Amino acid sequence: MTVREIFETMDYGTAPESATDALAWIAGTGPRFGHFLGGAYREAGETFETRNPATGEVLAEITQGTAEDVEAAVAAARAAQPGWEGLGGKGRARVLYAIARLVQKHSRLFAVLESLEGGKPIRESRDIDIPLVARHFYHHAGLAQLFDTENAGRKAWGVCGQIVPWNFPLLMLAWKIAPALAAGNTVVLKPAEWTSLTALLFGDICRQAGLPEGVVNIVTGDGETGAALVASDIDKVAFTGSTDVGRKIREATAGRGLGLTLELGGKSPYIVFEDADLDSAVEGLVDAIWFNGGQVCCAGSRLLVQEGIAEAFHAKLKARMDKLRVGDPLDKSIDVGAIVDPEQLSRIRALVDGTDEGEIHRAACEIPEGCFYPPTLVTGLSQASRLMQEEIFGPVLVSTTFRTPSEAVQIANDTRYGLAASLWSENINTCLDIAPKIAAGVVWINGTNMFDAAAGFGGVRESGFGREGGPEGLEAYMRPLHRGDALEKAAAATGEATEPQSVDRTAKLYVGGKQARPDGGYARAVFDARGTLIGQAPIGNRKDVRNAVEAARGASGWAGATAHNRAQVIYYIGENLAARAEEFAARLDRMKGGTDGKREVETAVDRLFTWAAWADKFGGEVRSVPIRGTALAMREPVGVIGAICPDEAPLLGLVSVMAPAIAMGNRVVLVASEPHPLAATDFYQILDTSDLPGGVANILTGSHAELAPVLAAHMDVEAVWSFSSTDLSAEIERRAAGNLKRTWVNDGRGRDWFGPAGEDRAFLGHATEVKTVWVPWGA
Ligand code: NAI
Prior knowledge:
The chain is an alpha/beta fold.
């Protein structure tokens, strides 16, 4: 080829990376690999083959972990945990720092191994995955260094079971292991069956870094090994993978008092407005959907392009696609590598071939034989089309058009997922207007697929819950130092229903800002501590739950009210309660048969003031990320929260649960104390006179055991909290798997509602989601 031809075609040759060192490592340490357990590689057991997807060649044999192997690893992690936590944050920081340095020193070996086994282009593993892994350990060495001073009152969960997928084998390992170790946990990690090698190499890095034996254990195997790990005696589960498996894990961990974070699938919108820099947006798409062959949970896999520019944009995009190079992952000059495994390839094929809608454009570039799939664009699909809704997890982009920004938001949010979004417009006003309106955990403005250890990553809706990265990522690896004492089931007082009522008030439910009769038309007699009838409490049923949820959904304007405004309303509720303090105190004393009523009312007023105070002080932070830009960690309300209120402090408990939730912009469906429901039905009179918009706080009375499962299963409820003295944790967590709603349950433990635990900052965390918004920034 002449120089002139090169300039004309811009074609360039291959630049293959040598696999020699990686193959030598496999041959030397393997080629039959056992688990890395208790600080050493174990003998291989029953094995399966792992292959290079680009060539089909067998690379190594990997042990299929049994339940006994998992048990041994958990035992090693358990034995090592107190010592590791006992080292203190600064001691742990030294080891994490050493790991970061070692990852850097062996970065090329890691990169080649990762590309050999996973099929991703070496350019990506070398320039993105491995540097991000090192960055993650450096950042978390820092978080460990500061741990003891910054996290008073919190401690490590204990032993973490961590399960990672095959698309970013080492990066997902780092996202899981670094924060776990920084907080003082020990771990058992199971890599995905198609990509175990870099995790096994990482075991040796831990040994070289002087990590004490048993702190990190790598158990290899398939989904069965993963399920055994979930079932084992661990304290926290962290999972990244498919939504289906995430749901199974939610069910399998229900009621076990475990910490759980799930990072699941996505169908992330990539929105191009007509005033975008189209060439940049096309280049961004190359990263969004062809990075790692589209096998990326946050891939910009749904292109939404404004109608007026759609034709021009698609033309530019097709021209760019045709220039992509697909081929040997170890060739530094290719753009798209191999699909991880023939099984994944056939999933992609089945999805694309199974549709008869739309027009398909396949990149004109040369596609090698074997486990490769051409970069593909499908246009002209309807919103309901399977390809528009389902995660394809391959190099396939689907596209649709929109007319106005608000239509773009509506289409973007028409999905069960909520992981990420990219917005492209030269008008930053448009982007900043749209970013808060998209249901997603991460939003990139004029960019895509940016990640950093200092910025949280994770989803909403069926993309899972919990964040990885940033302080919120570390949070997931800590639990409160004091967990609270066992809570005894509170029983309602009994008496003779025929006695005359001393207070004749018809208590109702409170739905949508109005008093509502219960759908079933039933009420329960409520007695005071001496057995005298004091009223009738409505018995709410599933229909009442549905009405209350509908009212709460309708009150979405509350999320958009200013924090100042929300604070004013909560202060006003406090004032109005204070004005009737004596009456409430007397009624509480009568209900509960004590003399604590005055203190309960006073504390409830104070609590309202506390959460009103917080309303405008928990908006978020700016995160220092190593790009020419910045990341905003915005605290957004979760949405509609169903909360089962404490039985033992009927007024204070309800207020303590309601106030932080609404202070952060959520709407709530509160199920009142079961034995003492009348405190709540009195309280709605206070709400009625306090300018709280109808539907923001809804109050139901009735059986916790009957109402909680309905709330937990409701698809329009985003989170369920339970502080009930009825043991509901398992039931709530199991049913919450339906739409993967967040849960916060007491696992049978009480809380001192009168003390600091009653206004724990944890309420703020549970009442909000972090949305990370990456914005261009000149500094
Ligand atoms: P998967 O969710 O089955 O696998 C992820 C990890 O979970 C692997 O380590 C696997 O061994 C483990 N696992 C499987 N079943 C388990 C169980 N019952 N209990 C505990 N662990 C279990 O994902 P798979 O089959 O590899 O891919 C299927 C689809 O999932 C893909 O086509 C893609 O759509 C999606 N996916 C999404 C990922 C993401 O990052 N969001 C990552 C991987 C896959």
